[in-house]
Design goal:
Length: about 190
């Protein structure tokens, strides 16, 4: 990334030249370096999306194991074993921390980087503090997560419909002008002259 940013700064230096090019090159290199570092790597993006996709299933499985009578730590470990994938790694950390006697806040903090998992962690912490049953809250949470995902997919589909208008307009507008307006203008000008 630094090499790309440095090359960009060098290109600005060459194009502008002089002191302005030197100053612009340094500013461009720093801005390019910061911009490139903000881009999420594809592997991290895929992991984040997979974790978010598996979260409703994990909540349902946790609710089912708790309804069957398993304690929270064993339930989390069982779901981690059954689930697989990157979310299972985080759930395994949560389960092992709880099994070894860690505080619930410390254990459930492993899930916080996952989008939507803060609600699961919050429900688990409230249950740990109050002693209330967690299974019902997890079932409702799984339904809410699925509804949120459905809403986001619908919004993305609507956005795609709006964004497709620009390329279509750019393609059809010149064709309309050439096929529809130019012959009429030529015919009118031919009659006038």
């Amino acid at each position: 990334m630094r090499l790309g940013a440095g090359l960009f700064g060098l290109a600005v230096l060459v194009v502008l030249g002089g002191w302005a090019g030197l100053l612009g090159g340094v500013v461009a290199a720093v801005a390019a370096d910061r911009g490139l570092r903000r881009i999420e790597p594809p592997a991290a993006r895929e992991r984040r999306l997979r974790e978010a996709a598996d979260l409703p299933l994990a909540a349902d499985l946790l609710a089912a194991t708790m309804r069957a009578g398993a304690p929270v730590d064993r339930s989390v470990l069982a779901v981690a074993d059954a689930l697989g994938g990157p979310l299972a790694d985080r759930l395994g950390l949560v389960g092992r921390t709880l099994l070894l006697g860690g505080r619930p806040q410390e254990a459930w903090a492993h899930l916080l980087p996952v989008p939507g998992a803060e609600r699961l962690a919050g429900a688990a912490l409230r249950s740990a503090d109050s002693g209330a049953a967690l299974a019902g809250a997890l079932t409702r949470l799984a339904d809410d997560l699925r509804a949120d995902r459905s809403t986001a997919a619908e919004a993305a589909a609507r956005r795609a419909g709006v964004l497709i208008v620009l390329p279509l307009g750019l393609c059809f507008l010149p064709a309309f002008i050439l096929a529809g307006l130019v012959p009429v203008i030529v015919a009118v000008l031919g009659d006038v002259l």
